[in-house]
């Protein structure tokens, strides 16, 4: 069974965003299990801006963030979805992503196939898809499909439209769920830029005696040894980079 984890930014468990994702699930078949998470399902404390996550690669708060993160990381495909609130995704989803900030410095999603969805009344969908796309790419997620379903024009309640879009997305999920994690040109840009930053952290470690968690993460994962993220993933997928369990305590 392939595991699809769905993080929905809305607290409406029977709202339009859930309906959109559910229409995809109905076309997936019995070989896929979709697990849903809503903001109220996990106790997530507000970010206090202490920056410990960047130095230790984990949050200091005694909340349920790690449980949610593990669900995302263990999935074969990640689906992230949000209604449009004031031309942006929801505050609940923003809080969760804020608490995962160090993922954007470590490409923590590691090429995981990711679907980004949004719903809106009439407008604002592009800002949500764009913002989430930049965040997911920064976290190393391989975006395989994006879509918005609007009330005006009638999309979310238009069965013909919904069937066409949901069918296309479900086929993309089925395709990528069977493949190893992959890179793309946007992730490669992030990898190249962040690798330069991480190398500077190595200098700080030597000169100032600081033990930066992000540098340690890159080193332990073996990412510093590769010119491209694609080459790193290829080696990782064949079991040649690292052993996940050896560094799980730092996550």
Automatic annotation (TrEMBL):
Nucleus is among the record's keywords: no
Cite the InterPro entries for this sequence: Flavoprotein-like_sf, FMN_Rdtase-like_dom, ISF_SsuE-like
Keywords of this protein's UniProt record, alphabetized? Flavoprotein, FMN
**Cited Pfam families:** FMN_red
Q: Which GO terms describe its molecular function?
A: oxidoreductase activity
Domain (NADPH-dependent FMN reductase-like): give its ranges.
4-146
Q: Does the keyword Flavoprotein apply?
A: yes
Q: What is the name attached to this protein's record?
A: Multimeric flavodoxin WrbA
This protein's species is Butyrivibrio fibrisolvens DSM 3071
